[in-house]
Amino acid sequence: MWLNIKSFEEYKDVYRQSEEDRKKFWEHEAGTFYWRESWDKVHSGGFENGDIKWFEGGKLNITENALDRHLNTIGHKTAFIFEPNHPDSFRRTITYRQLYEDVCRFANVLESKGVEKGDRVCIYMAMTPELIISALACARIGAVHSIVFAGFSAQSLAERIQDCDAKMLITNDGLRRGDKHVPLKDISDEALEECPTVKNVIVCQRTNRDIDWVEGRDEWWHMLIRNASKKHTAVEMDAEDPLFILYTSGSTGKPKGVLHTCGGYMVYTSYTFRNVFQVSEEDIYWCTADAGWITGHSYIIYGPLFNGATGIIFEGVPTYPDAGRFWEVVEKYEVTHFYTAPTAIRALMSYDLDFVKKYDLSSLKVLGSVGEPINEEAWHWYHDHVGGGKCPIVDTWWQTETGGIMISPLAGITPTKPGFATLPLPGITPVLMDENGKEIGGNGVSGNLCIKHPWPGIARTVWGDHERYLQTYMSSYKGYYFTGDGCRRDEEGYYRITGRVDDVLNVSGHRLGTAEIENAIDEHPNVVETAIVGYPHDIKGESIFAFIICEDQPKNKEDFKKEIHKLVTKIIGPIAKPEKIQIVAGLPKTRSGKIMRRVLRKIAANDLENLGDTSTLLDPSVVDEIKEGEAF
Ligand code: WTA
User: Fold this and answer.
1) Which of 263, 322, 517, 573 would bridge with 55, disulfide CB 3.0–4.6 Å?
2) Residues in the chain where the model's pLDDT stays below 50
3) CA-to-CA separations, 387 to 153, 354, 356, 381, 435, in angstroms, rounded
């Protein structure tokens, strides 16, 4: 029987047991899945060498655990309800059996196009069932999927395809998100000019707009699946074979391709989904994320399917056609579990409460939060107005690299506290580090958050750059995994994540690297150098502030800002546009040439009294000059 913790006492007990014998704990969890052959070794490797392996030698196909295993028991149960962008558009439900057949058909299509085990396939699609079918079909034939959020630009898409040498791209003609139209095929065509490795493009129809067509390369989804068999024998994978690559921003350089493998990721997402959300058979679970982010991978696609849950695939946005959209969907499907991001809650809080009150939300049992710290005001609004004061909030802390939830309440079991991710899941050992790289013991302390022991869901490498993996996560504190987050452990031992301590921004729950944005802005012919920092923003959590040195003073600042926005949108995507720009004569640099960002952060937040020590700057006078300047 798989672990399904039901009381706080049991949680404490299980946590203790997991600490006493980690291998036994994870072996038990893994044993609840269908493996074609069992593993030789539960676990090997560690953070010292970055050679972590779980269930090595075990043979499986992850889709047999997500789909085939359910056919005889819950084949007729709804796996997904698809809710389109516009409430009046065509909606549909898909049973486990239908999903299985669709995945098999598409797996056959992929194989017929020559995609083989180990090949990379890039998916750049609208949030529709076909996106999920594409990912699962890749997993079924052993191809490595790399889903790129369909809000990224042609250049970002091209970089990701090039980085992993994808052989195929799956996309839509276009998509609608709110009242916006995104021409996915046009963007793909532009990206593919730079991507010679892509031999085939499969286009799934969504908007029926006119698109260009490259004969011999492009094919319609609906034509290809027409005659494909609904039976497919899944390809046997080793537990440590790659499952997917997902690009995410780091503090330096280009986004990195975080790689997850089959066995450990399966065990970890399934275990965390079950215990954190406490979804039972009849429940309707809705995670509002996009499958282009890790939350969608782990808690729309994989975690819920392993557990036989019914989930919602939502194509839209929270404010279209109006700010009651989420609640209309909750009422319509009698959603019991609702998992979203603080930024969405804060955005909806700014509208009239009638948008919430209009709908019957009494079906809700559990609310979830992910992606950024949730401030107390948003927590209370969520708790009182959405949850009617009766639903526990699971504030789930985790990362693309952790594969699944790490620190979180278990719904209805762990006593919650606004703003706190509360306690680690059994099997996870968080530690706080001081500036000398030593663990800080006791409670009522703050430090940098590390994890002490490997867990099955941890990313195994950065695609094509293992050195960077070691450097980013395993070099700051030898023998530990460094998360990049600051954290407080209060008197009760509860964890509160305070935000990134590195140069990663979190804008509306999206991770962005300062270096990435700086590089994009530096492409402007009139820009000499840029420094990007984040500053607090009521709705986005954090917003982007650009300090820019220009060659010539721009004649019209508003025009200059528009040009910068256009450039950033082209190179990265609209989410990376700086909200504020200030033109400066110089940047505060140390003698070794490093930008002292903490000073800029304070200035951006208009906290001019607490700039701290600036005596180590090469030229401390630039700070006064920046303080006096004006942003626009
Ligand atoms: C932040 C998203 C506070 C954190 C799953 C982390 C959070 C980064 C929380 C990872 C939370 C995520 N409370 N902060 N509940 N959840 N974060 O990779 O800074 O997109 O390092 O994964 O988001 O973002 P990523």
Assistant:
1) 263
2) none
3) 37, 15, 11, 9, 40
Task: For residue range 393-422, list pLDDT tens digits in order.
Answer: 999 999 999 999 999 999 999 999 999 999
The interface pTM score, or ipTM, of the predicted complex is 1.00
For 152-180, give one letter per residue: b (16+ CB within 10 A) or e.
Answer: bbbbbbbbbbebbebbbbbbbbbbbbeee
398 Cβ closer than 6 Å to some ligand 1 atom: yes
pTM for the structure as a whole? 0.95
Structure tokens, 220: 């319609």
Tens digit of each residue's pLDDT (9 = 90 or more) over 423-462: 999 999 999 999 899 999 999 999 999 999 999 999 999 9
Tokens in use for 383? 């708790």
Ligand 1 binding pocket includes 496 (Cβ within 6 Å)? no
CA of residue 108 to ligand 1 center, whole Å: 37
Put the strands of the sheet holding 242-248 in their side by side order: 218-220, 200-204, 168-172, 120-124, 144-147, 242-248, 256-261, 461-462
| pLDDT, mean over the chain | 96
Give me the amino acid identity at 426. P
Q: How far is CA 423 from CA 215, 342, 373, 625, in A?
A: 55, 19, 15, 45
Residues in the chain: 632
| Identity at 606, one-letter amino acid code | N
Residue among 339, 367, 497, 508 whose CB has most ligand 1 atoms within 8 A, to mutate: 497
Closest by CA to 373, choosing from 357, 349, 395, is 395
Q: Which H/E stretch holds residue 398?
A: none
